[in-house]
Design goal:
46% of the residues lie in helices and 15% in strands. It has 9 helices and 8 strands. The protein has an 8-stranded parallel sheet, with helices on both faces. Helix 7 links the parallel strand 6 and strand 7.
């Protein structure tokens, strides 16, 4: 799987987390059925590896299913064994180097210019700008000035309107978590998560994402 191509094409990464493994699996499958092409299951969720394993069995080998909040090298190996096709970190962590060793694409968390340089040098496929809400779309625009060839994916406090603004400022995609969480919620809520950021992407008129590294 080419994670960067998937991000460029679909512009949305849905993030599933929660205390109920059955609800988490339902959320992943509902998002996939709703047309969301990239889904991350946070390892902070109960039995996250089991959810990834069961979702992979249901969705097949080609679906872009990843593991999030991957910190240690052991976490990276366990996620890969469970069937994760990519890794997401909340910050610079040993999982970045281990993901590269395993041949898995990594969306590495970074906030400052120094962290962006370190993540890129460490082999990150793209940069998860986290928490994006601290600086907002204007901060992303400023950050892209010295890093025009870096692919950024803002995560943290991104809603439908925010998604449009981040895409306007050059984000390759956005990550949406709160409305996708596997807490008690309806299928309609998860469909809203699937559709609203994509509608924002179309409204933005920004069909030219950031260049890769």
């Amino acid at each position: 799987m080419n994670l960067l191509d998937e991000l460029r094409t679909h512009r949305l990464l849905a993030i599933v987390r929660g205390p109920d493994p059955a609800a988490a699996l339902t959320a992943v499958l509902t998002l996939a059925e709703s047309g969301v092409a990239l889904v991350e299951v946070s390892l902070t969720s109960a039995d996250a590896l089991g959810t990834i394993r069961r979702a992979r069995a249901a969705l097949g080998p080609d679906f872009a299913l990843g593991a999030g909040t991957v910190l240690g090298a052991d976490d990276a190996r366990a996620a890969a064994d469970a069937g994760a096709g990519f890794l997401v970190t909340p910050a610079l962590a040993p999982s970045l180097a281990e993901g590269a060793r395993l041949g898995l694409p990594v969306l590495a968390g970074a906030l400052t210019p120094t962290e962006v340089v370190q993540a890129s040098s460490g082999g990150a496929t793209a940069i998860k700008l986290f928490p994006a809400s601290l600086g907002g779309p204007d901060y992303l625009g400023a950050l892209r000035d010295p890093f025009p060839g870096t692919a950024f994916v803002p995560v943290g406090g991104v809603d439908a309107d925010g998604a449009r603004r981040y895409l306007d400022r050059g984000a390759v995609a956005v990550g949406v978590g709160s409305r996708c969480s596997a807490v008690p919620s309806t299928a309609a809520t998860r469909r809203h998560c699937a559709n609203a950021p994509r509608r924002s992407s179309r409204r933005s008129g920004n069909d030219r994402p950031a260049h890769p590294r």
